[in-house]
Specification:
Number of strands of chain B: 11
Helix content of chain A: under 10%
Distance between the termini of chain A: 41 Å
Distance between the termini of chain B: 37 Å
Mean pLDDT of chain A: 92
Largest sheet of chain B: 7 strands, mixed
Oligomer: heterodimer
Largest sheet of chain A: 6 strands, mixed
Structural class of chain A: mainly beta
Strand content of chain A: over 45%
Order of helices and strands of chain A: EEEEEEEEEEEE
Low-confidence stretches of chain B: none
Structural class of chain B: mainly beta
Order of helices and strands of chain B: EEEEEEEEEEE
Mean pLDDT of chain B: 92
Low-confidence stretches of chain A: none
Helix content of chain B: under 10%
Largest interface: A-B, 26 and 32 residues
Shape of chain B: globular
Number of helices of chain B: 0
Radius of gyration of chain B: 13 Å
Shape of chain A: globular
Number of helices of chain A: 0
Chain lengths: 115, 114
């Protein structure tokens, strides 16, 4: 079956630090990969995505590269801000042909940025 | 910007009671989903819905659960007889087409079963 493993949190960093949140996956077929972010009291928002190997997704200074050889999709940001404090979820979907494919999520990583 | 909305934001119910969670997907979207997140655990897929029928469902989505699109705008999740372990955050999501992989999520309904 499909699964996503991401690093346990909370991850606490100082403002302007470099961020990496690791994500690895197992999937049958060729998945699309996603990072979603959940700010306090809000729903899940798509942060970035990549649909095939070696694609790089990027948004708001965050990046992640689809690495098929290591089955990974690590999230990085060069300089984090206090406003980046949130829970980050790595997820995948595998096309089944039916169209309405459910996402498989990791457990989420709580990121805390201190001023 | 269009968004998915969910009501209520919080619901408390007694074990054995029926609950209906409501979602209004983005207006031109065709595919609808329910997920749940038990406190401290991962977000889990429950069911997807297209063209007025279930497209895919997980093992969690047993006979206690049902989904419906009663009109052109609402998408509901019904739990017939709630159990303590149904306490969770329930998220609705929608997407526009079969080729569109980005799912747009609502803010969630926090359900507490006592």
């Amino acid at each position: 079956g499909n699964s996503v493993t991401q690093m346990e949190g909370p991850v606490t960093l100082s403002e302007e630090a470099f961020l990496t949140i690791n994500c690895t996956y197992t999937a049958t077929g060729y998945p699309s990969l996603f990072w979603y972010v959940q700010y306090p009291g809000e729903g899940l928002q798509l942060l970035l995505k990549a649909t095939k190997a070696d694609d790089k997704g990027s948004n708001k200074g965050f990046e992640a590269t689809y690495r098929k050889e290591t089955t990974s999709f690590h999230l990085e940001k060069g300089s984090v801000q206090v406003s980046d404090s949130a829970v980050y979820f790595c997820a995948l979907s595998v096309r089944s042909g039916g169209g309405a494919d459910g996402l498989t999520f990791g457990k989420g990583t709580h990121l805390i940025i201190q001023p | 910007e269009p968004e998915v909305t969910q009501t209520p934001s919080h619901q408390v119910t007694q074990m054995g009671q029926e609950v209906i969670l409501r979602c209004v997907p983005i207006s031109n979207h065709l595919y609808f989903y329910w997920y749940r997140q038990i406190l401290g655990q991962k977000v889990e897929f429950l069911v997807s819905f297209y063209n007025n029928e279930i497209s895919e469902k997980s093992e969690i989505f047993d006979d206690q659960f049902s989904v419906e699109r009663p009109d052109g705008s609402n998408f509901t999740l019904k739990i017939r007889s709630t159990k303590l372990e149904d306490s969770a955050m329930y998220f609705c999501a929608s997407t526009g087409t079969a080729g569109e992989e980005t799912q747009y999520f609502g803010p969630g309904t926090r359900l507490l079963v006592l």
